[in-house]
Design brief:
This protein has one helix and four strands, in the order ββββα. The protein has about 100 residues and is of the alpha+beta class. The chain has a single domain, classed as 2-Layer Sandwich (Herpes Virus-1). The protein has a two-stranded antiparallel sheet. Strands 3-4 form a two-stranded antiparallel ribbon. A hairpin with a 2-residue loop joins strand 1 and strand 2. It is elongated and about 100 Å long. The N and C termini lie far apart (about 100 Å).
Length: about 100
């Protein structure tokens, strides 16, 4: 014998909300988190990470972490320029060495 019943099914849906304003923090299939503090952030409270990590996805920062990080980004930019200058010097020395040892 088969007994048939109609039952109400409740579905639980998890939605990420912005830790700053409570608005939905999802954009399409992925949620957005701050790359430094990991808070959930909506489009209004996020900014694209100024240093490209080279990964497949864009990294974001919350506005608070962006403001806190500004002096660090400036320092990192200066160090990156120094690294480039060192690499140029190294390349020149190697090319000069090649010319002197090839003669």
């Amino acid at each position: 014998m088969i007994k048939r019943e109609t039952v109400e099914v409740k579905e639980v849906i998890a939605t990420r909300l912005c830790d700053f304003c409570g608005e939905e923090a999802n954009e399409g299939y992925r949620s957005n988190n701050c790359g430094l503090c990991n808070r959930d952030i909506c489009p209004e409270h996020k900014i694209t990470h100024p240093i490209d990590s080279g990964g497949d996805y864009t990294e974001y920062l919350c506005l608070e972490c962006f403001e806190i990080s500004k002096p660090f980004f400036e320092e990192m930019d200066k160090l990156e320029q120094e690294i480039e200058a060192i690499a140029v010097s190294m390349e020149k020395i190697c090319k000069d060495n090649k010319e002197t040892t090839s003669e």
